[in-house]
Amino acid sequence: MAVTDTPARIRAAFAEAGVTGWLHALDIDSGAQLAAGADQLVCTASVHKLCLLVTLHQLAATGALDLGEHIECPSAGRTPGPTGLAAMLDPVRMSVRDVAYLMMAVSDNAAADLLLGRVGLDAVNRTTQRLGLTGTHAVHTFGELFATIRADAGPGGARALTDPHVITRLRALDPARTNHSTPRDMTRLLGAVWRDEACTPEHGAAIRRILGLQVWPHRMASGFPFDDVHVAGKTGSLPTVRNEVGVVEYPDGGRYAVAVFTRTAHTAATLPAADAVIGTAARIAVDALRAP
């Protein structure tokens, strides 16, 4: 299948799954790429935690931050979420390095905001600017993001998020008013991490390790069900939004950065087809890049 035919196949897969999707795939070593809406501005959701992770390691590489430094997470005032520190009830004291692990492996919102409290949003934006990610910007912390959702949902609370009319007024789903990027920016970031251009080799290896420990297999990894193919990545979710960016590594040394961002008109929290098409689209793209 020619690469020129592939974007149409990807768009057809998105349509069959009931989503609107945007994708960019990059051969990290050759520079070959494949685009299907790659420059669309998109809501990153928790994918933006990757930018924070890179920022932490850049600061550590310069001596401005000690990853072994311990920070306190009190029981009160934590950013909400279903995993990690966000779901715990008692005070916790952990190293910056281990908090970053929770932020990435289980997408812990409280962990992310602890780290943002340590380094600041401006540091994250300086990192993305320095790496040439011109379409990428962090507008608010994760706690602030969820506060906009609560405010925009109104008195109906979480139940109101099943109403399509409420969904249309959520600032968190408007890329112009929330944390945002493009698929091409995200593969550029991943490529820089895998080529040790974003950080020193020591810190690049640490970032790659953490990305490889993500626990969610139902999106990008579902497209590569092979014991000898490794997928390292970061998901992101909001009402009607399902994203993942990651790197697919083959035993022959091939390395492919893929970014997939999707929206659906369905407000249900559980949509297996919408999750699975991220893996399907990534596999179509990588197969095309690997084709002779």
Descriptive keywords:
292 residues, alpha+beta, five-stranded antiparallel beta sheet, two-stranded antiparallel ribbon, 10 helices, 9 strands, Beta-lactam_cat, Serine hydrolase
Give the gist of this structure.
The protein is an alpha+beta fold.
Structural description of this entry:
This protein is of the alpha+beta class and 292 residues long. The protein has helices at 6-17, 49-62, 96-105, 109-119, 121-130, 142-153, 164-167, 183-194, 201-211, 272-290, and strands at residues 19-27, 33-36, 42-43, 70-73, 92-95, 180-181, 230-238, 241-249, 255-264. The strands form three sheets. Strands 2-1-9-8-7 form a five-stranded antiparallel β-sheet, sandwiched between helices. The chain is globular. It starts with 5 loop residues before the first helix and ends with a helix. The mean pLDDT is 96.
Q: How would you spell out the order of helices and strands? A: HEEEHEEHHHHHEHHEEEH
Q: How many β-strands, per DSSP? A: 9
Radius of gyration: 18 Å
Helical fraction = 25-40%
Biggest sheet statistics: 5 strands, antiparallel
Portion in strands: 15-25%
Number of helices: 10
Tell the overall outline: globular
Mean pLDDT figure: 96
State the secondary-structure class. alpha+beta
Low-pLDDT windows of residues: none
Distance between the termini: 10 Å
As laid out across the biggest beta sheet, the strand order is 2-1-9-8-7
Organism: Streptomyces siderophoricus
Protein name: Serine hydrolase
GO molecular function, one term: hydrolase activity
Keywords: Hydrolase
